[in-house]
Amino acid sequence: MEIACNVTRQAPLIAELVNLATAHWRGGASVRPLVGEELSATFAVQLGGRTGADLCAVPDAGRHLAELATELRQALLAERPADQAARINAMIGRYGAQPYLVEDVGQPFHLHFHGSGGTQVEALGGEFATALALIVDGYGPDRFGVCEAHQCEAVYIDLTRNASRRYCSAACTARAKTAAYRSRRHA
Ligand SMILES: [Zn+2]
């Protein structure tokens, strides 16, 4: 199974955008979904470099990012594969994703999926929608989930070989293990 290395880099970014903008519980704590400039500035740090700077320069970036995050969450958590595929296809169309090769300084050509027009939010939308399509194609439709740890509704994208992921983070994996250990001792 060959998946563009882009996808493994983008999967955690997709989950992070969705979680920053839509989760009310993360890692056992109540959190406030980020909106507006707080959302765009925080996510720009995750992106880093020129992409992050370009994102902050988009007018009303936070609102557009929040819309993108909502679309991504609905696609990730769609109950039926046909519904999920339809949502991902709609995003690919809406954000005008198209494959083209890009050469970064000192690196070999690699494949990107956003058109040359549009804002950085639209570029991200195209990249992320295509990444989800490649994951469904390469790994199947069951690789997206919500963290099973107590008081956490963060989403994750599971790119493990054996589809074993159940938690959003190492911290939640540890919390769930501790909780299971305690309940066994009480039993
Ligand atoms: Zn979690």
TrEMBL record:
This is CGNR zinc finger domain-containing protein. InterPro entries: ABATE (IPR010852), ABATE_dom_sf (IPR023286), Znf_CGNR (IPR021005). Pfam families: zf-CGNR (PF11706). Residues 143-185 form the Zinc finger CGNR domain. The lineage of its organism: Bacteria, Bacillati, Actinomycetota, Actinomycetes, Streptosporangiales. It comes from the Bacteria.
